[in-house]
Amino acid sequence: MEGKKPVVKVYTTPTCPYCTMAKKFLKENGIEFIEKNVASDHAAAVEMVEKSGQMGVPVLDIDGEIIVGFDREAIKRALKL
């Protein structure tokens, strides 16, 4: 990816297998991200629901583009991989 790095936030819970897969995918592609644990951080949970309109995790915020769930192709498109 050229230019500036994308700002990536991943809203997760510790027990979510899709959250783990999403984080692994980002790490494998060298993408830095901020993890927000919505199970222990109420403010992050409120922020996630405001952005996505739902309670399910993972939710990825890639430069303002919201992706709900571990959607590998949508994540690739948002990151221009």
UniProtKB/TrEMBL annotation:
Pfam families hit by this protein: Glutaredoxin
Tree of life domain: Archaea
PANTHER family xref list: GLUTAREDOXIN, GLUTAREDOXIN-LIKE PROTEIN NRDH
One of the protein's GO biological processes: cell redox homeostasis
Organism encoding this protein: Hadarchaeum yellowstonense
Residue stretches making up the GST N-terminal domain: 6-81
Name the record gives this protein: NrdH-redoxin
GO molecular function, one term: electron transfer activity
Gene3D superfamilies: Glutaredoxin
Signal peptide coordinates: none
